[in-house]
Amino acid sequence: MNAHSVNLINNDKPVVVCCGDSITHGHIGYDWVSSLRRKDGSKIYINAGINADLTWNLNQRINDIIKHNPDYITILIGTNDAIGSQPVKLIQDYYIQTKNLPQAPSIEWFEEQIEIFVKKIKKNTTAKIAITTLPWLGEQEDASIMSVINNYNVIIKKIALKYDISILDLYSKFKEQISEIESVPYTTSELRRLRGLRAVVLYYVFGWSWNKIGKKYNLQLLCDHIHLNERGGSLMENMVKKFLSA
User: Fold this and answer.
1) Main-chain phi, psi angles of 202, to 5 degrees
2) Which of 15, 21, 72, 156 reaches 20 to 30 Å from 35, CA-CA?
3) Residue 115 contacts residue 156 (beta carbons within 8 Å)
């Protein structure tokens, strides 16, 4: 049930729209939106996550979110902004070309775009809104990419405070849960995409769980250094569940 195609004529249930990228889309990694939908028939859950989307892309489809007059909105976006903002031409070109971006990703552009998104949904809906801090990239807290993630999360927390919306601190949940640092490091090379492709093949062709796939890299909460495995996805699912029941 995605934001573009779903039809809610004569619906009398509260509508939850979950906005984001592949971590919300759930085709690579644990599909926490579908899990909530299966477990809770009292609400309509709409998945507004699209693989590889940046925050600018989310803004291009904001009308598909607003038109459903949601009662709740969750936002988990920025991981691709963070990856794409790294000074690696191959990565920047990939995002510009595949996502039709008008400019190269940057943290400044992310801050501009996430504020535009929050302002628009605040203005055009009456939904209760929660924004989520970005999860770890890889599971080594001292890796250089983690300082990038932290900088993006500073912006996310600032936006939450400025617009008085709830914050789901997924980053801190990772910090609480990751007990040992024995994982294979995250990489900005093409291995990043190959690990994702490998995860998809192992899950959909060979029937491996996302937990089992992540274990090949000694990952506890991720399956391929980017996407959530069942353990990591359950953290997000439980936070959203608490937000909806508050």
Assistant:
1) -65, -35
2) 156
3) no
